[in-house]
Specification:
Helix content of chain A: under 10%
Helix content of chain B: under 10%
Radius of gyration of chain A: 13 Å
Oligomer: heterodimer
Order of helices and strands of chain A: EEEEEEEEEEE
Chain lengths: 115, 114
């Protein structure tokens, strides 16, 4: 079956702009998580959505937001971009239910560069 | 709370040599443990996982890891490194019966010399 799909793969923005990233999870997966990856901070958890509700949230400012649709597709938005937001944004899906062990299936990421 | 420590941000080996990537975890309850691999410009891919069955876990590409509760470790090994093993490796922990959100280590970059 198809894997996790993230779009766009690469994008360049300028400070102050906003950006929206999209993620389509593996069919049947109801949980979508977002991570920010930078050389300095490693992998940092942004938030997790399950059945259209934010279930867990990391320690990021309110400029970072997300949502999940009824088909489990998810978007994340970053407003008022800062240079430090330049990163690889990874989306991961999982079943999110009782049998879940925490194993994640990752997309290839969206690489954001803020100038 | 749970945490993961990966010793060594970079590990360099020669092709054909043993690969050993170290991971120590902290968890107040029995953990689930994972190793992921990330190739350049790609997402993470699961190598193997421990979910309280056999303590020696075999994964893809010839990798294996052993869960040692007494040492709170889950080191990743491969008997013979191949050039294609050059990548970033991440250890992660979740709690059984608890949060499904994994905590990741900082990653170890494996460099393989010809």
């Amino acid at each position: 079956k198809a894997g996790v799909t993230q779009t766009p793969r690469y994008l360049i923005k300028t400070r102050g702009q906003q950006v929206t990233l999209s993620c389509s999870p593996i069919s049947g997966h109801r949980s979508v998580s977002w991570y920010q990856q930078t050389p300095g901070q490693g992998l940092q958890f942004l938030f997790e959505y399950f059945s259209e509700t934010q279930r867990n949230k990391g320690n990021f400012p309110g400029r970072f937001s997300g949502r999940q649709f009824s088909n489990s597709r998810s978007e994340m938005n970053v407003s008022t971009l800062e240079l430090g937001d330049s990163a690889l944004y990874l989306c991961a899906s999982s079943s999110g239910t009782g049998s879940n062990t925490g194993e994640l299936f990752f997309g290839e990421g969206s690489r954001l560069t803020v100038l | 709370a749970q945490s993961v420590t990966q010793l060594g941000s970079h590990v360099s080996v020669s092709e054909g040599a043993l690969v050993l990537l170290r991971c120590n975890y902290s968890s107040s309850v029995p953990p689930y443990l994972f190793w992921y691999v990330q190739y350049p410009n790609q997402g993470l891919q699961l190598l193997l996982k421990y979910t309280s069955a056999a303590t020696l876990v075999k994964g893809i590409n010839g990798f294996e890891a052993e869960f040692k509760k007494s040492e709170t470790s889950f080191h990743l090994t491969k008997p013979s490194a191949h050039m294609s093993d050059a990548a970033e490796y991440f250890c992660a922990v979740t709690r059984s019966g608890g949060s499904y959100i994994p905590t990741f280590g900082r990653g170890t970059s494996l460099i393989v010399h010809p």
